[in-house]
Design brief:
Order of helices and strands of chain A: HHHHHHEEEEHHHEEEHHEEEEHHEHHEH
Strand order of the largest sheet of chain B: 1-2-3
Number of strands of chain A: 13
Largest sheet of chain B: 3 strands, antiparallel
Structural class of chain A: alpha+beta
Mean pLDDT of chain A: 84
Shape of chain A: globular
Largest sheet of chain A: 5 strands, antiparallel
Radius of gyration of chain B: 22 Å
Radius of gyration of chain A: 23 Å
Bound molecules: adenosine-5'-triphosphate, fe (ii) ion
Low-confidence stretches of chain A: none
Oligomer: heterodimer
Number of domains of chain A: 3
Order of helices and strands of chain B: HEEEHEHHHHHHHHEEHHHE
Mean pLDDT of chain B: 91
Low-confidence stretches of chain B: none
Chain lengths: 427, 356
């Protein structure tokens, strides 16, 4: 399909989906109001499910950015209705793959050699295909089994188009809905992330860097890369096997002590975020595998360093201080921490920051902060921030909050908690 | 004689004296306050006499108290002479790190409020009314937690140590590796092994937590002495009077912590614990003494070697001139106290004082 046509097609399909979803919600509301019924009393489950299915189908067909968005929805089980969460969380690693021909073209043009010269075997069916890339199992000439991650050929272009259409749709929607949600900051954030994720050389570098952190700590394993075979659009790495972190039954069946999952996972992320200052910023369940370590304790394999981030000096300490001051609800200490982290308010109105903190804490289960940034709290914070345009939030903070909230989502699925403060003490 | 009150409400155990003025650490509001120019610890109005009453009851019953002899308390590393020497040579970082780490650990003391207590009625044979044990979750833990981590606008020990550091060392840089070292660098967390698997997990964990904190609080006595000497030394401190005073206030505040934990653990020693399935009993003294000795030995003897190597690396890392670094490192080592834990591996620890 010529570029322009493809673009139009994508834009109209996304727009059409958005319109259907919107109408399915608004239609019955109008009807109820017209009939004098209470719209809040209506059972929405059927409508949620229909909408979720349509969004999923569109995302699967369109890939790219839409899948990213679905992934976000799919981990926020406390915010979105369960119909969305269960449908959209399938976006993690169960996408239909592209045809092998397309894949081979990318591999050959990136490596500058026919595929058969580098690999003794190359499985034509993908083991996984996600938003930006698909992964194939292969064997090098020396017999080593590897995983090859290949970027979809036209992904650059697709993302540009999707971002453009999403912005248009968001703008149109905002004109029609009386009480619109502001999607634009989310889109900005997505755009930044996607740019980082599209260069696989960066991903390889990031994985190597995090591997050094866990050198003497068996708790986290990162697949070794075959550097000579990695490029902008292809990664060849050690093939690893493990259980997806949210598959509780499988984890139990493997004889792994599930009670240690969250404490250890939090510890690993604390180490990256609070102590090391460089972290895997996309801990969604599809990127974390569990293996059986000494005495049945869980160990983790981290995948996908597409979104890894350096934090400024002192940032980890700032996050720690923020959590601590929230725990004791010490407002002056909280303010110091917010400022240390780079939060700014126009006209220096400190009350706005305190107000945000109050709202966050108000959303926690116990009405007090105990060390877990739950999804509700993070969402409440972003809501509060959006409502207070005087506040400027450092991007690093957004990423850290998102990571903690993804971890909290995993904990939620496992029936555990993601307490960052608890996981900080000496081992 | 009118018998002393032994039952208290949480509100009573957390009630405050009427201070004439509050305590400030620099510009940070802290807890407690002054009466007649004397520093008075927070939440002590009733808590102090209450702990005294429980203790008196215990000693009147002829029960010994848990106690850690001074000889078991390891000196702070680097010691006062060593730390002062480093600072005079321009190496403030190790001291800044120590003080920051202490402040964080003090803050974590607040986790005592998360200890899940056993069902004492079911798991202890004897009656517990009128004991410190019965008041752990009725104000004692909560008051302790607030003393350590602060509460609302009042800073606690965490903030007091930070203030002492910032006042004494004139807002030093905080080394970037504090949290990494706190997390123990390399090692991963493992599930703690049960010591008395027949007791309920809550019972065992409560004893472990209290014993652990009591050991830390007792060892802290040496940390206070160290910090007061160092931060009170006008050759190295920017504000010797205030810095040392802040540490002294923390020291004064810790006394009720040591006291109530001592009383509570000693009360448990004198009782009979029931296994989870209700079929077996244990002497409280056997369980408490075993756990306490084990923790005490562990924390006293897992000390310097690594810390010592790290400090050597740091001296060499910070001082460019290799010859000077070598000189500083030699002199630093010559000031080492060479302390070791005084009890052999298979020898029993002295952890009790005789009944009064
Ligand atoms: N080294 C490997 N060994 C085995 N399987 C792998 C390996 N790397 C990736 N996979 C599989 O491929 C899936 C997708 O990989 P990855 O997360 O790196 O792709 P992605 O396109 O960045 O995905 P997303 O952005 O959706 O997280 C993983 O969830 C895993 O199932
Ligand atoms: Fe303290
Ligand atoms: Fe204390």
């Amino acid at each position: 399909m010529p570029k322009l046509l493809n673009r139009l097609h994508r834009a109209s399909r996304i727009g059409y989906t958005a319109l259907c979803v919107w109408l399915r919600y608004k239609g019955p509301q109008w009807w109820d109001r017209f009939r004098g019924n209470d719209p809040d009393a209506r059972d929405m489950r059927g409508i949620h499910q229909k909408n979720a299915d349509q969004v999923f189908n569109t995302a699967v067909a369109m890939r790219g950015m839409l899948i990213k968005m679905c992934q976000i929805v799919g981990t926020r089980s406390d915010v979105f209705p369960p119909e969305y969460v269960s449908t959209l969380s399938k976006c993690h690693d169960q996408m239909p793959a592209r045809a092998f021909d397309e894949v081979r073209d990318v591999v050959e043009s990136e490596l500058g050699k026919p595929i058969g010269e580098v690999f003794a075997e190359f499985s034509e069916t993908a083991i996984a295909s996600a938003s930006l890339a698909q992964v194939h199992k292969a064997k090098l000439q020396d017999g080593t089994t590897v995983a090859v991650k290949i970027q979809y050929p036209d992904i650059d272009h697709i993302i540009q188009t999707d971002l453009f259409s999403s912005r248009r749709i968001a703008a149109i929607y905002q004109r029609f809905d009386k009480n619109p949600m502001d999607f634009l900051p989310l889109l900005d954030e997505l755009q930044r992330h996607l740019r980082m994720e599209l260069d696989f050389r960066r991903e390889v570098e990031s994985g190597d860097k995090i591997r050094t952190l866990f050198e003497d700590d068996r708790i986290v394993h990162i697949p070794e890369f075959h550097h000579a075979l990695c490029s902008r659009r292809v990664i060849v790495m050690e093939f690893v096997e493990g259980i997806k972190v949210t598959e509780k039954d499988e984890i139990d069946a493997a004889g792994i002590d599930a009670s240690m999952l969250m404490p250890r996972l939090m510890r690993a992320f604390n180490k990256m975020i609070l102590a090391f200052g460089f972290f895997h910023a996309d801990p969604h369940p599809g990127n974390i595998l569990v293996t059986k370590g000494d005495g049945g304790s869980p160990e983790f394999i981290l995948l996908d360093f597409g979104l890894a981030k350096d934090l400024p000096d002192g940032f980890g300490m700032g996050i720690f201080e923020l959590m601590f001051s929230m725990m004791t609800f010490n407002e002056s200490a909280m303010l110091r921490a917010f400022k240390e982290l780079g939060f700014k308010t126009k006209n220096d109105d400190d009350n706005t920051l305190i107000h945000i903190a109050r709202r966050m804490v108000g959303r926690s289960d116990s009405g007090s902060f105990q060390g877990e940034f739950t999804e509700e709290m993070t969402d409440e914070m972003f809501d509060a921030i959006r409502e207070n345009p005087v506040v400027e939030v450092p991007t690093d903070f957004v990423l850290v909050a998102r990571a903690f909230s993804l971890l909290s989502g995993i904990a939620h699925t496992l029936g555990q908690s993601a307490n960052a403060l608890d996981a900080l003490g000496p081992g | 004689m009118k018998s002393a009150q032994l039952e208290y409400s949480p509100e009573e155990l957390m009630s405050e004296d009427s201070y004439e003025s509050p305590l400030y650490g620099g510009d940070v509001l802290c807890h407690g306050g002054y009466i007649n120019d004397q520093y008075i610890s927070p939440r002590g109005k009733v808590r102090r006499p209450a702990i005294e009453a429980w203790r008196t009851r215990l000693t009147e019953e002829g029960q010994p108290l848990i106690h850690v002899p001074d000889a078991y308390v390891p000196p702070h590393y680097p010691n006062y002479e060593q730390a002062k020497y480093l600072m005079k040579e321009g190496l403030v970082q190790p001291v800044s790190r120590s003080l920051t780490t202490i402040s964080i650990l003090e803050g974590f003391g607040a986790r005592i409020r998360d200890v899940a207590l056993p069902d004492f009625d079911k798991e202890v044979v004897e009656d517990l009314s009128g004991t410190a044990l019965a008041h752990l979750d009725k104000g004692l833990f909560e008051a302790h937690a607030r003393d350590e981590a602060g509460h609302r606008d009042q800073g606690g020990h965490k903030q007091m140590w930070e203030a002492a550091r910032d006042v004494g060392l004139d807002k030093p840089n905080i080394p970037g590796d504090v949290l990494m070292r706190l997390m123990g660098g390399g090692t991963s967390n493992r599930k703690a092994e049960r010591i008395y698997p027949e007791l309920s997990a809550q019972m065992e964990q409560t004893i472990i937590s209290m014993a652990n904190i009591l050991v830390v609080e007792t060892f802290a006595e040496d940390v206070f002495a160290w910090a007061m000497e160092l931060l009170g030394d006008e050759e190295v401190s920017a504000d010797p009077k205030l810095a040392a005073h802040l540490v002294d206030c923390v020291r004064i505040d810790e006394k009720p912590h040591v006291d109530y934990l001592t009383v509570a653990l000693s009360e448990l020693r004198g009782r009979t614990l029931i296994s989870q399935d209700g079929k077996k009993t244990f002497e409280g003294s056997e369980v408490v003494d075993h756990i306490f000795s084990r923790l005490l030995r562990g924390s006293a003897s897992n000390r310097p070697k690594e810390a010592r190597e790290r400090l050597q690396q740091e001296i060499h890392g910070q001082i460019q001139d290799a010859r000077r670094a070598e000189k500083v490192s030699k002199h630093f080592e010559s000031l080492d106290s060479g302390w070791t834990f005084p009890v052999a591996k298979d020898e029993q620890l002295e952890i009790l004082t005789k009944a009064a």
